[in-house]
Amino acid sequence: MLSEFDEDQRLWRSTVRDVLAKECTPALVRGAADAAADTGGPGGQRGCENDLYSHPRRHMPLEALWQTYTNLGWTQLVDPSEMVELAILVEELGRATDPTPFLATMTQFVPLAPGVAGAKQSGAALPEGITARRDGDGWLLDGTARHVLDGDRADWLAVVTTEGVFAIPAAQASVTRVPVFDPVLHVAEVALADVRVGGDNLTGADPEKARHQALTGMATTMVGACQRVLDLVIEHVRTRQQFGAPIGSFQAVKHKAADMHVAIERARALAYFAALTIAADDPRRRLAASMAKASAGECQSLVFRHGLQLFGGMGYTWENDLQFALKRAKAGEVLLGTADEHRALIAKENLTLAGVDSRAAHV
Amino acid sequence: MQLTFDDDVEAFRAEFVAFLDANLPSAEEADRPSRSSADVPEWARRWQRLQFDAGWLLPGNPPEFGGRNASILQQYVHLEELSKRRILRSFNPQGVGIIAASLLSFGTPEQKRRWAVPILRAEITAALGMSEPGAGSDLAGLRTRATLDGDHFVVNGQKVWTSGAHDADVILTFVRTDPDASKHKGISVLLIPTDTPGVTRRPFGSIASPDDLDFNEVFFDNARVPAENLVGKLGGGWAVAHGSLGHERTLLWLIFAERLADLLVDFRPVTTLDEDRYATLVMDAHALRWMGSAALAREARGEQDVPALSVLKLFGSEAAQAATEAAFESAGAEALDHPALTGPLSHLSLEAYVSGWFERYARTFSGTIAGGTSEIQRTVIAERVLGLPRG
């Protein structure tokens, strides 16, 4: 039980960091946000659907960024045994406020539909809202899935039903991007109207295990976003002078910063623990995935509050990049179950796993 | 990253478990409990000596000092197995963990023979004299004075919080030997036998009970201490202090991991809100072990990241405190009962587990106050981990 990255993993992290520092710049993220604000995001017109700026195939900077990721082979990290490496990547993407559909594709769609999408294609997951009913030798998929991450710019959809998991081309769905508070995030309502599927569409994936991967991916990206908030806050309080001293020299500020660091370390520990239980197919992965998501949720709550507070008025402006990391972290909290919901699962799962002696469930 | 230990560590664990199974004192043998952190009943002395002689007391030490040159990961699983059984290896923990360890690092060969080995073999017990009424978090402000007079130091002043002093044979005492040197440079360390004329020990009760006598005030009134009892260099006390507090610092967080592990068993959630708090405990217990294992891995590579240990101490102590309060509340009116059994009864465990939920909760504040308060830890993290400027 050793939580430290080995040499390969450290090298991988620094490679990813270097790429993102060059390619996924704050300016690019801001460009994506401003484009969304101009067309359909907060402050813009509502109900944009497959508009010029929201589709990566047509939005040049995002298209190029996606190409970079796929050319580097990042979309080939599809085997669950590589979950730690994927988590390292996804944490850095969270830190950079990645504007592409990478997270949805790799941690939500692929686990539900392995081998379906091409290396340059994107996917989204519909874990609930759709029913399947028998129709001859096939099924009819019907219903509406709400708040689907990247549902509006996916090539493929993975649909979870009681009859099994189906993969269908996104063109068979009616998709509407929903305006949300995070201008970089794509969230959509996806409606299927008696879409006919056959046995070929069944993926055979275990939706429960896929859920663990999705939770771990979301948790890890939230940790990255929280780290970005702390990085920006530290930079700010070291340079911002009041009363003749950097405000970071005041204990009231220091102690908040220390609490942010501890919360991030805790959430990061549980995120990678979850990633490792998935990679090792350890029976604790259900517990671990919920712990990762719950702790990431608790972390973002504290990091958002302290982060925005410590930035003072400057963090309250559209001009400041703090908003992108704050919004990414906060949006993650309400996707895939909140911290409260996961804590309820954790208590039940641990009491079940542990029986009388909880130590058996220990690392 | 790995979820399991390598074979050599697991083999080491199995060997220790076999030793425990064969040698643990029985309930009949353990005929009276320990009353303080330097009160070691005869049966507990035998138990500690058995571990010393078999190389299981401090496995990281060489055999002549109660060990077997174990690696840091082996030391970790050793403590983990003790914790699983709620067993103390010594009922004079500061003697073994801090004082003897300091002597092994800073003492002369004669001091190791005369003091360290007897402490480790439970022939004598020891207490740590650091804090003073005016020197707590600001330890370097200590004022107990030692003046060289021929081949003796003459000591005057007062210590406080000196755990177990009234039952201890010797106190490792931090004194000011040079009042003119800068604050940190004028400090030295003396081994002061408690039967030295001029040494007065006055135990006082804790928040738990007037009969819970572990803390002491210790007064020195012209106490004459042989100069050969100087540990480390004259004026080199600050280095010893750092070493003392640093001993097993890499594993210090484990005490909080153990408390969290105990609470996972002892805390029985009743209401939905209890379950919510229990879930936080589950997360904290896992997170602390997993975060701590990074410190172990660094230590195993021979690296030290001292500020990172502040994160573990702060997080672990506060998590244990919050979880104990939650367990207290979930007990409802039963939490009033004192004394009360709040965990499985073990004759080899801490008194705390038969002392009621209030006492267990109150004792968690020793975690957030002693060994650097939570406030000090936050400042250390801000300055030394995050790089914020000193105030």
Write up this protein.
The complex is a heterodimer of chains A (363) and B (391). In chain A, strand 2 and strand 3 form a beta hairpin. Chain A is built from ten helices and nine strands. In chain A, the strands form three sheets. Chain A has a four-stranded antiparallel beta sheet, with no helix packed on it. In chain A, strands 1-4-5 form a three-stranded mixed beta sheet, with helices on one face. Chain A has a two-stranded antiparallel sheet with strand order 8-9. By secondary structure, chain A is an alpha+beta fold. The C terminus of chain A is likely disordered. In chain A, helix 6 packs antiparallel against helix 7, helix 6 packs parallel to helix 8 and helix 8 packs antiparallel against helix 9. With 391 residues, chain B is α+β, with helices and mostly antiparallel strands. The model of chain B has no long low-confidence stretch (mean pLDDT 93). Classes of the chains: A alpha+beta (363), B alpha+beta (391). At the A-B interface, helix 6, strand 9, helix 7, helix 8 and helix 10 of A face helix 8, helix 9, helix 10 and helix 12 of B.
